[in-house]
Amino acid sequence: MNARTRDAGAAGTVALGDLVVNRLGFGAMRLTGPGVWGPPADRAAAHAVLRRAVELNVNLIDTADSYGPHADEELIAEALHPYPAGLVIATKAGWQRPGPGQWVPDGRPQHLREAVEGSLRRLKLERIDVVQFHTPDPKVRFEDSIGALAELQRAGKIRHLGLSNVDVDQIERARRITEIVSVQNRLAADGSDDAEERDVLAYCERNRIAYLPWAPLGGLGAKQTAAFERVARAHGATPNQIALAYLLHRSPVIAPIPGTSSVAHLEENVAAASIALSDEEFAELSP
């Protein structure tokens, strides 16, 4: 891989409603402190990663009010505001953070309204391009949570709505209230996901909903690791790059958002956008 291949646009594009973004995005969660808590030890280094991502033609940055909490959104605004034309920032709301490594669902309409208002302030925006409901709250009626976000959308504070950590039934229930442009669930890099997640991806394909896999570089089993290493050698690439290429090959609605706190690792991830797997290689990597 050379510097000329480090262009997120090489992966093609995907639509988020009326927005079109390159299919290799950046997940900003790992820019925060340990346990996704507090600011990074080196704020300047985090800014450098964000700025380099934009230089590499990454035009989708994923964050959440719960990352830090709040610190991640603040870093994005510090590094990139005023934002370049075409940059889409997708944030999420729906968790409370009592402490490092602690996550408590909160889908109450009042909490979601406060979370979005806070994100608007921290990101220095009048309208957020994409707000994703971060996780269903078993204590709150799902339609009440989506309805609160839809109200903010009608008020002009949100352009598009997405979902995270949901099943097909929940996507359909949300779509009865408003348009859903994205789903962010965990998807195995080697295709060994369960039947429910395969159903979610198939639903997104049928309905042209962008699928943003979180933790796209999750661990592989021993058999899969060997296969990814073999294909990586053939392409002069790393297994992680092949994992991203695998996801890009798997479906045209998939838009991976790998995260990192390192410029070098960011450049490696973006270079994966230009790796084209053959159908035979894809079959070899699939379980």
Counting helices, strands and paired strands, the structural category is alpha/beta
Uncertain stretches of 5 or more adjacent residues: none
- Rg, rounded, reads 18 Å
Record the strand order, biggest sheet: 3-4-5-8-9-10-11
Overall structural domain count: 1
Strand composition percent: 5-15%
The biggest beta sheet is recorded as: 7 strands, parallel
Q: What is the percent of helical residues?
A: 25-40%
CATH class: Alpha Beta
Order of helices and strands: EEEHEHEEEHEHEHEHEHHHH
Task: Tell me about this structure.
- Helix 2 (71-80) links the parallel strand 4 and strand 5 (88-93).
- The chain contains 10 helices and 11 strands.
- Helix 1 (43-55) packs across helix 2, helix 3 crosses helix 4 (142-154) and helix 7 (222-235) packs across helix 8 (239-250).
- The chain has helices at 43-55, 71-80, 109-123, 142-154, 168-175, 195-207, 222-235, 239-250, 263-271, 279-285, and strands spanning 13-16, 19-22, 26-27, 60-62, 88-93, 95-96, 104-105, 128-133, 158-164, 180-184, 210-211.
- Strands 3-4-5-8-9-10-11 form a 7-stranded parallel beta sheet, with helices on one face.
- It is of the alpha/beta class and 287 residues long.
